[in-house]
Design a protein that fits this description.
- It is built from 9 helices and no strands.
- The chain has 171 residues and is an all-alpha fold.
- The longest helix is centred in the C-terminal third of the chain and has 29 residues, at 115-143.
- The N and C termini lie far apart (33 Å).
Length: 171
């Protein structure tokens, strides 16, 4: 499977399943091919949009039942309260930060947030976040020979995100 398709599928799945952050795949790809960083940001944005749609629809169709398979009741209740209180701002802030994006899709569906508003905000903000990461890596490659250390950096990033994921799953 080529890297572009893998990134698209991973970004889509990450948007509605509790997988390690998209940066675990996106950053190593950008480091390996800095000239394709902005292209990877677009692919990541498309995947996130599609995955957000799937998560939203699952939540609307199956309600709390499907969300509780992924998070506990306390987390879900806190998230619903925040979503109802802050609405679109919660989606914007959650999408621009490393907040687990799969939670946003389910919360938006459970709270019956306008589907298109959610998709526009979530997909748009996650796309902007990917663009920012791509721009940062691109700029850094002008000053640092990133490609010289890209394999090591990629392994460190993957270990970090996978470790963080495993630790979070154990607690």
């Amino acid at each position: 499977m080529n890297a572009d398709l893998f990134l698209l599928i991973y970004a889509c799945l990450k948007a509605f399943l509790p997988l390690p952050s998209i940066e675990a795949v996106f950053v190593p790809l950008c480091l390996a091919a800095p000239t394709k960083s902005f292209y990877y940001a677009v692919v990541s944005g498309i995947g996130t949009f599609l995955g957000g749609y799937i998560g939203y629809e699952l939540s609307v169709s199956y309600g709390r039942k499907v969300a509780l398979k992924l998070v506990n009741e306390e987390t879900l209740s806190e998230g619903e309260a925040a979503m109802q209180k802050y609405g679109a701002m919660a989606v914007i802030l959650g999408s621009l930060t490393p907040f687990p994006d799969f939670v946003l899709a389910y919360l938006a569906g459970l709270c019956r947030m306008n589907r298109w508003l959610f998709l526009l905000l979530d997909g748009g903000c996650r796309f902007m976040r990917s663009l920012l990461v791509a721009a940062t890596l691109s700029k850094a490659s002008e000053f640092i020979a990133i490609e010289k250390y890209s394999t090591l950096l990629s392994i460190l990033i993957l270990v970090y995100f996978l470790g963080k994921y495993v630790i979070r799953k154990k607690t």
